[in-house]
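Structure request: NAD(P)H-dependent oxidoreductase, Bdellovibrio reynosensis.
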Amino acid sequence: MKYIIAGTDRPDSNTLKISKHIQSIYQSLGEAVEIIDMKEMKSHLHDDIHYGKTSAGMQPYIDKVLGSDGLIVVVPEYNGSMPGVLKYFIDHLKFPESFEYRPVCFVGLGGMFGALRPVEHLQQVFGYRNAFIFPERVFIMNVHKILAADGSVQDELIKNLLMKQAQGFQKFTEALKTSKLDANAVIAQKKKP
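Returned structure:
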């Protein structure tokens, strides 16, 4: 299963609204995906010792990443980078197996630049962790203008870009899986005697 990481803990965030739209795209393509919501997860970020010792509250989120077929990271721009809660979540994840050979794609949302900076920062982090980064990124500028009151996406160009990314990411993850180059295949191979 793939997971969408809604990369902020802001209440009623546009990030979660876009994440739900992306989830509906994957459903329309015949694939169930789940959302990892930083707002839900953040209550567990501080209930463990961190750096190698995981609490029972954090374990389900970590297990989702460790077992995922791919990650779709949806990130807003905060002060020229990603929200701190997203980086802190990443810091909780096991090294190297959380991201090594794991397919990942990015959607940035924000004002004038559509979260270009946080997506580039995340590409550096995931690249350092040896993830397979899907090259088609989506940047949503002026996100507040493309969302209706009910949270639905109103802009046809953005809908098309998100659909194209989802279709491409499905092919990308399937190609890696078929070739046994994805993280789950690599982890299974390492476990063999």
